[in-house]
Design goal:
single chain, Immunoglobulin-like, 2 domains, five-stranded antiparallel β-sheet, five-stranded mixed β-sheet, elongated, disordered N terminus, disordered C terminus
Length: 419
């Protein structure tokens, strides 16, 4: 099992640490009473306050980035991170007491771990509504894992905060459907996020509290303990709301890892154009189409001639697919535009219009390295005439310069040059 699969486990070994320590203590005492003990007793874990060494940031697209580190060899770190994150990982230099992070719950004789209702780690930002009566649009479940996160030392462990779509401790929905429901969780764009850590909730197995964070790399944030109380905090700056149309593999909008393709790219006629956002955006069913414009050879397509479909695995990835047209017209240039007024779920706007062009092509041959596409099957409704094929199939787009397409059926890469 790889490290990521380990981190997704619902059951943690760390919560049984106090029980293991007690068992070792009883064995040692028994040995002393029986005259068989020859040395010390207790846990084999070293003493010392846990030191926070690294903070990782993970997005819905599966990208993981090191954002904060006290290890000099980790090199330059990003100034911002995408707001649409699924979790952050706090890596410590030793095994910690997992019972302060998770509770052990036994149901029908089966024990499992669950996050504490009042976890030792919180995430806040300016203007966040912290009132108890508010229906929060954000809930953070905090877990512990005693499995080290490579390439950290073998004796390291980590605590991670994962956003969930609902609060498991909220009242169950009533007959009207209210209560216990929150909107999908993410972070606001272009905002400073504080990851607040309770030192007395992050301790060694000997109850030694977490070591102080470097003053020049941390701050403080108010907590529910009282008006004068505060916890140390790691600050994270999220990137402005951003989008990329047909991004190259591994591209994460709002970071410096890539750039959208500017020139038309040959794609299959059933190509699903991916719109990759760096945050959750407006409702797909009722609002998003107001901000999406699709043209085929210059003619504006209406909703129904194309459809919008969210990725099953990543709600920040939306596909523009042929609708009643069934396939895009071969040889007819397809232009997709996102309006600058498009908003994320917190109200931040895209700010700049985003556009990309494609040439769907059912390849019938090549002439001197120039692609020859089959004529369109929709002579009207904005599709190109058969006589326009050469105009959209000339060398203006380098076939070898195209990026991979994405098949909406399973989100897996397919060759953009083939149909």
């Amino acid at each position: 099992m790889n490290a990521r699969e380990h981190r997704r486990q619902a059951t943690r070994t760390s919560s049984t640490a106090p029980a293991r320590a007690t068992a070792r203590w009883l064995i040692a005492i028994t040995g002393v009473l029986g005259g068989a003990a020859v040395g010390g007793c207790g846990s084999s874990a070293p003493h010392g306050s846990p030191v926070l060494q690294q903070v990782y940031w993970e997005t819905r697209a599966g990208a993981q980035a090191l954002y904060w580190s006290t290890i000099p060899t980790d090199g330059p770190l990003p100034a911002t991170v995408p707001p649409g994150a699924t979790q952050f990982d706090l890596v410590f230099d030793r095994v910690i007491d997992g019972s302060k992070v998770e509770d052990t719950v036994t149901v029908n004789g089966v024990s499992r771990q669950q996050p504490k209702a009042m976890p030792p780690v919180m995430a806040t930002w300016p203007d966040m509504d912290m009132s108890a009566s508010a229906d929060p649009g954000f809930y953070l479940s905090v877990w512990y894992n005693s499995i080290h996160l490579p390439p950290a030392p073998q004796n390291s462990s980590y605590v991670y905060g994962r956003q969930t779509a609902s609060n498991p401790f909220a009242p169950a929905p009533d007959a009207s459907g209210t209560g216990g429901v929150t909107m999908p969780s993410t972070y606001p764009s272009n905002t400073t996020i504080s990851i607040c850590i309770n030192p007395s909730g992050i301790t060694s197995e000997y109850d030694e509290p977490m070591a102080a964070l470097p003053p020049d790399m941390s701050g403080k944030c108010p907590v529910p303990d009282g008006p004068a109380a505060s916890w140390p905090a790691i600050t994270v700056m999220t990137a402005p709301f951003a989008a990329a149309i047909n991004p190259p593999p591994g591209f994460v909008p709002g970071t410096d890892t890539g750039a959208p393709v500017a020139t038309p790219t040959y794609v299959p006629t059933n190509f699903a154009v991916p719109l990759q956002f760096n945050n959750l955006t407006v409702d797909l069913a009722t609002e998003l189409s107001q901000y999406v414009q699709v043209r085929q050879n210059g003619a504006l397509l209406i909703e129904g001639q194309y459809t919008l479909q969210a990725s099953v695995s990543d709600p920040t990835l939306i596909f523009v697919q042929p609708g009643s047209l069934q396939i895009w017209d071969s040889g007819a240039q397809l232009d997709v535009t996102l309006s600058a007024g498009l908003k994320d779920i917190y109200g931040a706007t895209l700010g700049n219009t985003q556009s990309a062009s494609f040439i769907p092509c059912q390849l019938v041959g090549e002439d001197g390295g120039v692609r020859i596409c089959a004529p369109p099957i929709h002579p009207d409704g904005g599709a190109a005439d058969a006589g326009d094929v050469s105009a959209s199939s000339d060398g203006s787009s380098d076939a070898d310069g195209g990026v991979d397409a994405i098949d909406a059926a399973d989100d897996t890469p397919v060759d953009a040059a083939s149909d």
